[in-house]
Sequence to fold (279 residues):
Amino acid sequence: MLPIRTMTLDDVPLGMRLKDLAGWNQTEADWRRLLALEPAGCFVAECDGRPAGTTCVSVFAPVGWVSMVLVDPPMRGRGIATRLMEHALAYLDGRGVGAVRLDATPLGRAVYEKLGFVAEYAVARWEGLAAGGQTGPGIAPAGPADVAAVAAMDEAATGADRRALLHRLRQEQPETMKVLMRGRRIAGYLWVRPGSRAIEIGPVVALDSASGEALADAALSDCSGRQVFMDVPVPNLPAMRWAEARGLRIQRPFTRMRRGRPVPDRPLLLWAGFGPEKG
Fold:
């Protein structure tokens, strides 16, 4: 049996090395956030006496999210990714999680299908140089009193309770979480964060297309002159058209997949996801 142990902060350099070999965009802060939100749900597989792969889960009731399935290239083809996934799924089953989701790369999709995951919809990663955006009226940094409304809106879009994540994001970088006010009502929110290869735009959630465009333009303005990534649900056609009109290009596809109960999400409200590590 392949040994699998709980990941710790001492393993962050391992995670960074593996994600660099895969060409992914995460930073040390992303690994530390995963460990803080679900310390018992991050795992390292060992093969031939040394670390060989990782995976992490996050529980956003009623959804469990699986991410960071990484295997050292020389050790691929030995079933390590499958074993890590089985371990992560057993952990989520033990937590009573009835719906498990992930964003699959084309390379990983076959592994997940064998474990009972089914495709829900495509997600497109857009990339490019941020230019041409502007911050319109009504957009301002989110205050402490806004987080509850933001969390409720986020849950309506994603079908998951991500309050703990949103509170942590605001604590990490309070100036980068912004809300769009329409009168006294919050019509959407955005957050951006640094990545190792590009600035990640997302989550961006909006109640309507006009608000989505305003928030996405404000995000581009905040990142002006820098390389950005933005993961957009393909069913959200207004967001896809906006990204193309702003000169971004599709870098690669993901497939949002599910195991277990359907999730009552609303991808038309989601203009940009957090990224593959939290959906």
Summary: The mean pLDDT is 95. The helical segments are 12-22, 28-37, 80-94, 109-114, 147-158, 163-172, 209-222, 237-245. The two ends are 31 Å apart (CA to CA). The chain has two domains: 4-97, 125-272.
